[in-house]
Design goal:
The protein is of the alpha/beta class. It contains 20 helices and 23 strands. It has a seven-stranded parallel sheet with strand order 3-4-2-5-6-1-7, with helices on both faces. Helix 3 crosses helix 4 and helix 13 packs across helix 14. The longest helix is centred in the middle third of the chain and has 22 residues. The two termini are 46 Å apart. About 9% of the residues have low confidence. It is found in: Cytoplasm. It comes from Desulfuromusa kysingii. Belongs to the DEAD box helicase family. DeaD/CsdA subfamily.
Length: 582
Amino acid sequence: MPEENEVTFKDLCLAPNVFKVIKEIGYETPTPIQSQSIPPLLEGRDLLGQAQTGTGKTAAFSLPLLSRLDPKLKAPQILVLTPTRELALQVAEAMQTYARHLKGFQVLPVYGGQNMGQQLRQLQRGVQAVVGTPGRIQDHLRRKTLKLDKLSCVVIDEADEMLKMGFIEEVEQILSHAPEGRQTALFSATMPKEVLNVARKHLQNPLEIRIKSKTSTVDKISQRFWQVKGLHKLDALTRILEAEEIDGMLIFVRTKVATVDLAEKLEARGFSSAALNGDMTQMLREKTVERLKDGSLDIVVATDVAARGLDVKRISHVVNYDIPYDTESYIHRIGRTGRAGREGKAILFVAPREKRMLVAIERATRQPIKAMALPSRKDITNRRINQFKEQISAAMESEDMEFFEELIDEYQSEYDVGHRKIAATLAYLLQKERPLNPEDQLPEEIPVERPERNVRPRREQKTSDEQMQTYRIEVGRKHGVEPGNIVGAISNEGKLNSRDIGRIRLFDQFSLVDLPKDLSQDVLHKLKGVWVCNEQLQISPDSGSQKSAASDFSKRKRFGKTAGGFKKYGSRSKKPTTTRRK
């Protein structure tokens, strides 16, 4: 729970539909840049903010600007300039998430290398926010395809990076096209004179905010990261739990709901675990911490706020299952281990799009974070065997075995079976719930490079074709979608097992996916609103889309046409892509 007198999101007077998302996501308290930036931006003031990458700047400007936005006006009202394509996509996706209860809201990321036709179509339909790199924004301004006359705010994100990449002049030219009365916010990790000149020229009486980044050397903590490339973070975590020498473990996730969900899944896999979050009563939280201290509980899955001030000496490992939103949270998290002079271990799960945060964390901790390889099935087998041998040795030394020795002699005499066979059978009975050779429990390899293939253990049974139905989703090749995006969205948001997702066929404007016939209306309703590649799935039972698409393709092939005009017969054609999930 938030400490007394601590600012909460409820105190910041965000629009109800924006605050509703904050509660759903599970954000508990704003970071310093958020608590100081949101009030003046809500008031319409210009702002000059100095803060490092990883301090929560995206939410700091997105939440107040979305609170002031008019969703009914189908024209750009917010323009965010970013130095890179990756940051543009990250900011756009974050804004789309924060605005999911603003009916009709659309945000468009624009950057070089992306299909210009797709951007033009979306601009013609009408978007309220544009996030892009200066070069591509300038292209649209020259073409007169992006109009800024209704613009209410411009955000310049990571201005010092713009300077390093030679974009400052382009930024100034773009600002000259914006209405004079608009609001402007500039964020930068450093404030070189060129950036300050832009601020003095284009910001009106700005409020200046400087967030000092806390750094730490965390000398006694060994830090590693695992590059998340597949769909199975839980499988990766299970392997780590099996192979590492762990006393107590603290696992951090972003939301209260996730603490309960992950703790339950770990319990189901045989690990002693419990949730710790702000929705629990004080008595229950204290009881959970006491169990961790006395060794009756080994794993606690917590949110940042719930774990604040937690001091348990036996915590040997901290796992960042969800990467934190800012570097200070990371430092606080891993500080829960390495107590009382002991060496601690910190493991961070990092998705490809989160690499920027990894760099920011390394800068904040003043330490490189080493990449780690997941334990193999052989590693886990060897560890289980060694643990079993240790159990045998400990029992031999500490227990009186005379009664059992006589029992074995009696059994051997009665059934004429050798001691070796009896011992092997007893070992099986003891370990059958947790086999020493976990071949049937673990996939041979966790999928990493192409998550849309091989996404389940070899021995899992696939849902039969008779139980499947074809569904249409409104995202296709032209939106940049790949089968892995679809699998990830449906399995994560629809809570479906990956083995229940069948064939995926990609077309230009839509895709088809085979799913179980008995999907509930609640699941379908939830999947309708899921966003993939900046498009809502809008899932529905298919009614001949594949046939009509194939017919259309046949005509285009016969007449040598594509959607963009005529082409040579010998050029490469875009056939529907089909992925069979084996």
